[in-house]
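User: My collaborator sent over this chain with a note saying "see what the structure looks like." That's all I know about it. Can you take a look?
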Amino acid sequence: MLRVGVAGLSHLGVVSSVVAAAKGCEVVAYDPQIDFANGLPIAEPGLAELFAAHRARLKPSTDPHALRACEIVVCAADVPTDQGGRSDLSAIHRLLETLISYAAPGACLAVLSQVPPGFTRAFERQVQHSHADRGLHLYYQVETLVIGQAVERALAPERIIVGCPTAQEPLAPAYAEFLSRFACPILPMRYESAELAKIAVNMFLASSVCTTNTLAEACEAIGADWSDIVPALRSDKRIGAHAYLAAGLGLSGGNLERDLVTFQQLSQSRGTDHGVVDAWIANSRHHKAWVARILEAEVLSKIDRPIIGIWGLAYKPGTSSTKNAPSLALVQALRGATVRAYDPQARLDPEAARWPHVRQVSLALDACQDADALAIMTPWPEFASVDLARVRELMGGDVLIDPYGLLSGARCAAEGFRSIRRGGVPVQPLMAKVA
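Assistant: Without extra context I'll predict from the sequence alone. Here is the result:
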């Protein structure tokens, strides 16, 4: 039976461990600080069931000696970023040094963590210089983690991109066997090409996000409706049925902005053009401030010390992460108001906790009490089935900002709300609130 080690039990590492076990491998899940023998440290749709079905082949360990038995060791630790999107690679360097020391001679070492172009080549030279006698095979594998869809994407990837010393060099037999279990195209290429391929995917996604939000804003300005236009784009073969065309609040999460910043740094150091990337980052900041601009026009400019309710702090549904979340940009912009915020999973980060004007509540309806406006900053499914009549009774104002169009405009109007969404014409209330 193929033995695989997964080192660094980040969100990516935990999912990778469980999926490798589901593919029939004996798995050592190594992390010096995390042992999930008695339960998973993360939540992800389908993960608990997959873990329960295959946990007999999964051995969590905090001892790096356990990796000695593995033919393949995958480095899946998280790469943290600062507020500017710049990666801190120090922890990855330390973990890889550990893996080199404890991996069996001739083992395959695959870097699944997201690293900048040039990282794997430089590390390979270090391995060849200091550990040539170990006969290790080093690869960079592009991760495809999407929180909320991590299990399905890991079990059935569209393709697997593998960075190799040269594009022509065949994969080591153990690694080739492991990848073949995913029954998808394998795209081997040079280290640098694979590292840039990951960034390229996110750059094309960022261009779709920014273009969509720019056009949605134009719709608001001229009285068009973005939802009318989307079918025309999806039916164009040059754009396609799976294009990202959901209007929203800029780029959020850790990966997109990190890759844009990485490309900026790469471009600056090599003298290539990065103007379009600069524009995407500026575009994202502009659209993250959309809710704040609406609130300024509809509430803040008209009411002293308003109360604002916020539904959703996470950067997207299905996660507790607030990394680059539009909600935090809004909270910062509302320092002159009283803010009540609710999220089913996310909690305000330590920096946000210092803001005295914000109180996080435990129920969605609690955020509505006496609110002059309510803003849905994360489209959690539970918000779509809320009792709008009860929300309207609790609120003092009638402004409901729904950027993602989670709620029916007709339903909002029937309950007396002024409903405003991205890319659409504001919906006026059909009735006034009865005193």
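A starting point for your reply to your collaborator: Residues 226 and 423 are 5 Å apart (CA to CA).
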